[in-house]
Description:
21% of the residues lie in helices and 16% in strands. By secondary structure, it is of the alpha/beta class. Among the domains are: 2-43; 368-441; 450-502, no CATH class. The longest helix has 29 residues, at 374-402. The N and C termini lie far apart (150 Å).
Amino acid sequence: MFFHCCLATDLESSRLCNGQPAHLILLLLLVLQAMLPLCSGERTCPHSCRCEGKIVHCESAGFLDVPENISVGCQGLSLRYNDLHTLLPYQFAHLNQLLWLYMDHNQISSLGSRVFQGVRRLKELILSSNKISQLHNATFHGVPNLRSLDLSYNKLQVLQPGQFHGLKKLQNLHLRSNGLTNVPIRAFLECRSLEFLDLGYNRLRALTRTTFLGLQRLMELHLEHNQFSRINFFLFPRLANLRALYLQWNRIRAVNQGLPWTWHTLQKLDLSGNEIQTLDPAVFHCLPNLQTLNLESNKLSNVSQEAVSAWISLNSISLAGNVWDCGTGICPLVAWLRNFRGTKDTTMICSSPKHPLPPVPPPTTLPPEPEHMSFHKVVVGSVALFFTVSLVLTVIYVLWRRYPNAARLLQQRSVVGRKRRKKSSEPEQNLSSQLQEYYMSYNPAATPEGLEVLGNGTGSCTCTISGSRECRGGIHKIPSPYYVKNSSNKQREMTVHYYIKVIT
Length: 504
């Protein structure tokens, strides 16, 4: 009856019954409120929500406050796309089994120091796309098991020095697209397990050597779209495990190397969209394992021989969108690109002088050496040819043994066919010999015996040999006009056809 005693007590002072402080009584009241539905046997899902086992979905329902009647056994709660403005202290204390909580796309403007007290098992917290402009220094001290925290797309301008203290298991931290102008010293000192840090799209102007102190496991760092004007790699020696560094679209004019040291782990560096005019060879000498380099949209005019000689591990490079001087100073870069075998975007336009940059031919591919493959190919080909010939001979032999009459018949037909072809060729040879036709023209005398002489075949005549083949297979008619007087002394025109065929 301790709760009844406290409820019945007059709240005149800040001290309540049994000497308990006021905030403990408030916590007990919240726990009691959450336990009442269980005592009455009520396990209903909150109105306008959807429950799936221990997961409660309350998205896009227009909630102004966190709904009631959420089961204490809830492990996942989604309150996305609502109108939440304020979160009370101990707001989720009765949900001590909660593992993830999504409250992005609301209207939350601030978070108190005790909002997440009581949810120590929480591993994922998403508060992106709100209007959070202020965080208490101890806001996240009550969630030591947090693995992922998303505060991107808010209105944060300042981070407190101890903002992330106690988050030793945090692996992913998103602070993209806020209004941050600086990062406090040792802000991530206790984030020893952090692997991903996004500080892009802010207003950061400078970094200190202790900014990333403690991030021994960080693998990916986003600093793009800020306001850096100079980057010194001396600031990053603490990031001994970093794989990718994104610095694109700042205002960087120079990238320097302070102290000589070697950054063995960095594999990807993005410096595109800046104002870099020259490349310091010392920067790339400290990056022996760099594989991807993006230098697009800067103000580079040439690259020195010392710089390109340090690109010993690159397999991808982007150089488009610079102001190249295509004089003799560009020769080291062109020579290096000729031998580069990796992926490249080298749409290079000369700004001076006015003659074009020598084209970079594609890398020559060496033909495969034949000695490594010729032996087994010869063996395989020989075996295949042997089996093919053997199969053909076997089929012929089987057919010959099984159908001897058919084989003889085929042989006879082939002989007959040859004879026919031989006979058909003989007439063609005879026809090819030139036929000679003799045409006789007779000019009879004006005597009465002319017709008789012509009919009897006596008398003199003249024969003309013609090589014409117009009458092949027939007789060609040669008209020969003459005139003769008959008994009635009338002159009549007659045509005599006389045919002579001489076979030679």
